[in-house]
C-alpha cells in the first residue's frame, strides 16, 4: 500500500476522499463519517507497507487526502416532492421496495414511486428505494446526520443510511396518477410466424434480464470509509 495507490484506487471510483490506515489499508468515501474527528497529524506516522518514506495513518488513525471537490448533499426538493427528514427503521416503515435500473437517487426514487402511484418515497443504505402512502408508527424522526450514506449511483447525493430512511413526500394537491397498465389484450400488431409441430400448446415465455453495471469496492474493515481523485498537499489525520 502507498498513498499514490490508494488515491488512484479511490479516484477511479469517483470519490472525494482517500484514506490510508495502519500501513496497509485504503478507504474511500465522499463524506467523513460521524463520529470521525481530527487528530494530531503526528498520530498518523506509520510507514506505508509499499513505501517506507510515506506515512499511511496508524492504528485507529486514518490519514485522509481530498481532491477539494464539494461534498454530497441531501436533496431537499425534487419537482413536487419535498424532503421530510431522516427516520429510523425499527420495523418496515414503507411497504414496497422498487427496482431502479438507472440507480437510486432522490430523483429516480421519487419518480419511481410516483409512477407506481405512491405519495411517500424513502432512500435507504445508499441503494434502496422504498415507496408507500403512510409511515409506520414505530418510525422516529432523527437528525439528518444519520442519513449520510452516499448514493452508490451518484456520489453528489446522500441516500439515507443503514436502517435509516431519507423520506420524501409528494407535496402537490391531489395524489400522483395511478400506475400505468403494462399489459394489454390487443394483439393487432403481432404476426404469427411459427406454430408447434408436436401438438403441444405452451405459452410463449419471455424473460428480460437487465444487467446493471456496478463497481464493487472491497473494504478491509468497517470502522471507516473514506478517499481522493487528484493527489494534493491537503491532508488530515482522523481517529
Automatic annotation (TrEMBL):
Source organism per entry reads Gymnopus androsaceus JB14
Listed PANTHER family = KREMEN PROTEIN, PROTEIN SLG1
* Main location as per UniProt: membrane
Residue intervals of the WSC domain: 1-68, 80-171
Which ranges of the sequence are coiled-coil? none
Alphabetically ordered keywords of this record:
Glycoprotein, Membrane, Signal, Transmembrane, Transmembrane helix
Q: Report the InterPro entries cross-referenced here.
A: Kremen_rcpt, WSC_carb-bd
Location in the cell reads: Membrane
In what way does this protein cross or attach to the membrane?
Single-pass membrane protein
Which Pfam families did the record assign? WSC (PF01822)
Gene Ontology terms: cellular component: plasma membrane
Give yes or no: UniProt keyword Lipid biosynthesis.
Answer: no
Q: Identify this protein by name.
A: WSC-domain-containing protein
Write down the superkingdom of origin. Answer: Eukaryota
